[in-house]
Amino acid sequence: MLHMHPVVSSRDGQCLDGQMDETSRISSVEPEKTDIMLALSSISSYNLSDQKVTLPGTKATPPTWNMFDFFAKAFLQFVMTLETDQSSEFVRFHQYFSKFRDIAFTRFCTSSEEKGTIDSYHSKIFQREEKAIKDIAALEQQLAFEREEQAKAFSRYQVAEDHLQQEEQHVKDEALEAEQNLQAEFNAIEEQEQKAFETEESNLNAKCLELKTILNQLQVENRDNELTLRGKKEQSAEEVRSLLDEYNQDIQSRIEELQRLHEDHERTQSKLSVYQTYFRNKELEEARRQEQERLKIEAIQAKLKRKIDAVIFIQYIWRRHLRRIRAKEALENKDKGKKEEKGKKKSEGAKSSKKSSKGPKVKKTVKKKK
């Protein structure tokens, strides 16, 4: 509980009467409430409108004490009406009111030293805020600088990326050119091999045909000889077998040579099939690449067409707007011309009327001049 013992300022030198009466009036209350009532009645028993009251260690102005006077009187009346009843609500209200009174007393009874301390604390806060603002500005400048550096680095990366794309396109072009050269070389080799094979095949066929003709002739001659020899003299079977063996050996050698040529032809055909498979795959890849490029070009053309349509529509709206403006200006000029023509006609009529009235005088002056 607070124990406030007011001391009268040196201007009056004495306390007002009534404090003792108030103290004696509440002395019959319970001891727990007596301290509160004494403290509040000690504040309420003074008229502080024209003086300052000094408490131990604190100083307060008259408006501050007037506020405490109001709360003290109100609380004292409330306590007197309750007498000795203390419910839980009263205890809670008493606690809240005491806290509020202490806060108000502390707030309005701040000493000059405390005020200086608070001002110093506030100045430190302000200095800290100014430093924080300066730090924020420096950080913002650093952020702008870093963003600029980042933009420069990004532009460098973009240039490097463009250079890499150009190199990639150059490599693709070189690969395509090499592939075309290889295809042309392969076609030339294939054509040469095909011509050589066809020439050799035709030669072998001609030789086989010649050998068949010779064989037929030999068979005929052998028959004739056999018949003549059988008719004239008997020919031994061994001679005939030797002739047949020679013939069979010759035919066998020819067959082996033909088989060798056939194997060479098969090897050439296998190489040709490998080359054909390779270039067929290349053609398929090239077709897929061309199809992708065609789709990209179509997408670009579609996008360009949409933009062109939008531009045409905008130009149409703009020309229409210009025609309206020109039509409006022409209409205004036409109305203005009509008004000017009317004004000219009026002025010409006035001039002609003046000339008609001054006609003879003008003629006389003209004659004099002549």
From TrEMBL:
Domain of life: Eukaryota
Keywords, comma-separated and alphabetical: Cell projection, Cilium, Coiled coil, Cytoplasm, Cytoskeleton, Flagellum
UniProt protein name: Dynein regulatory complex protein 10
Amino acid composition bias (Basic and acidic residues), ranges on this chain: 328-351
Lineage: Eukaryota, Viridiplantae, Streptophyta, Embryophyta, Tracheophyta
Function noted in UniProt: Component of the nexin-dynein regulatory complex (N-DRC), a key regulator of ciliary/flagellar motility which maintains the alignment and integrity of the distal axoneme and regulates microtubule sliding in motile axonemes.
Family stated for the protein in its record: Belongs to the DRC10 family.
Keyword Cytoplasm: yes
Coiled-coil residue spans: 129-301
InterPro entries reported in the protein's UniProt record: DRC10
Biased composition (Basic residues): 352-370
Major location (coarse): cytoplasm
KW Signal (keyword) present: no
Region feature Disordered, mapped onto this chain: 328-370
Cell location: Cytoplasm, Cytoskeleton, Flagellum axoneme
